[in-house]
Amino acid sequence: MAANLVPPAPNLPGDARLEVFVHPDAWPQGRPLEESNRFSDTRRLEYLGNKMVETAYMDVLNARWPKATPQQLVTLVSSRIRGLMERTADAYKWKDQVRGCPQQVDRNSPAEAHRLFRTYAGAVYVEYGYETLRNWIAALDRV
């Protein structure tokens, strides 16, 4: 993914950026949710992002290939989504923004790229909703 072709990521407020870019293992165990902070819980954002990214990407590919069967769409999503997350995290240089990353975690691993993408996507969904997330993923898929 050429850096000059990458669409800008939706801008997140400070509370969301803190949750996305502080490694979840850096937070205290049993940390209570902050009721006034919609982004309070990195793992919840990652879980939400995982579900919403898969849905949005399925939607994008369905629009691109409207005659694809359900099984073809599932195959398309599963064969492409990991690469999309890895290329995107790399293009935005997100690994360089993470704080509190334990030594045993490989910042360059595909798993860490997936975690970052899913968490960021979860925060995008919370802040802006489905359409913004879907449009961003559609733009990323074109690159």
Description:
With 143 residues, the chain is mainly α. The chain is built from five helices and no strands. Helix 1 packs antiparallel against helix 4 (110-128) and helix 2 (42-64) packs across helix 3 (70-91). The longest helix is centred in the middle third of the chain and has 23 residues, at 42-64. It is globular, with a radius of gyration of 15 Å. The model has no long low-confidence stretch (mean pLDDT 91).
Fold topology:
Elements lengths: L13 H8 L20 H23 L5 H22 L18 H19 L1 H13 L1
Features:
143 residues, single chain, mainly alpha, 0% strand, 5 helices, globular
Short description:
With 143 residues, the chain is mainly alpha-helical. The chain is built from five helices and no strands.
**Arithmetic mean pLDDT:** 91
Overall body shape: globular
SSE arrangement, N to C: HHHHH
Please state the structural category. mainly alpha
